[in-house]
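Title: Prediction job returns without error message
Component: structure pipeline
Severity: low
Priority: P3
Assignee: unassigned

Description:
Job completed but the reporter wants confirmation the result is attached to the right record. Sequence as submitted:
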Amino acid sequence: MRKVATLNRRDWDSFIAWRRRRGDKRGGKKSEGKLRARVIEYDLKFLHSALNWAVMARDAAGNFLLERNPLKGMPWPKDGTPNRPTLTDEQYEKLLGASTRVGARCTLALVLAHETGHRIGSIRLLRWSDVDWSTSVIRWRGENDKIGFEHETPLTRDAIAALDTARREKPSLGDTWIFASPGTTNEPSRHLFRDWWKRMEKIAELAPAPGRGWHSLRRQFATELKHTPLRDLCRLGGWKDPQTVLKCYQKADEATMRAALETRASLRLNGLFARSRSA
């Protein structure tokens, strides 16, 4: 039996290595499947919580269960440089054309992902009652959001048109799923959306790229709206932390950088002109 107080860096690193070797066995996944650092971090944070509780808790004699957390300050596992491709306009147009061959609901999912910038998991769980047709506003329920962010955002004309087309093709009333699977009232399947993406890529003749998927539309949204005030952009795309947008979603591009330099040159030129006239 190992005493908790004797845990050290070697134990920490050994656990991380063991979890990587073991792989991800959730939901029937193969043991050799690659395990991301974030999943291992969840396990370690749970352990940290237990150790921090033991530092504050006392036994029947009034003694602390643990004098200190022996793993405090240990480095979290990392995957290296993450692969975060952003979908291009050309790729989106190809996928949009391909989506019509997959199905109307697939087209709707693609348009909503492109126009709202939201996670496909939140889009998948939308209900018709979440759409306010009178104001062109959509409600994103906290219960369906990865970070529990309950909010509302305005809808673009393209998004409203796609929703209206879907509603006309398959009229639904009340609190029903927008992406309900045919012949069932169960929660829309996440596997269906994964299949849609693969089929669209194949039809559009886009070679599969690691990390692209539905989330590349979210990165495209954040990058194209980089000039939008950060507070408004976070609300539009469903982000709570602005730093997440800057670190993980927005991508620097040459066109924006050149435009910034041209703006700076113009401001300096105007400043010099104003000073020369006042001299």
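Comment from assignee: result matches the submitted record. Strands lie at 131-132, 137-140, 151-154.
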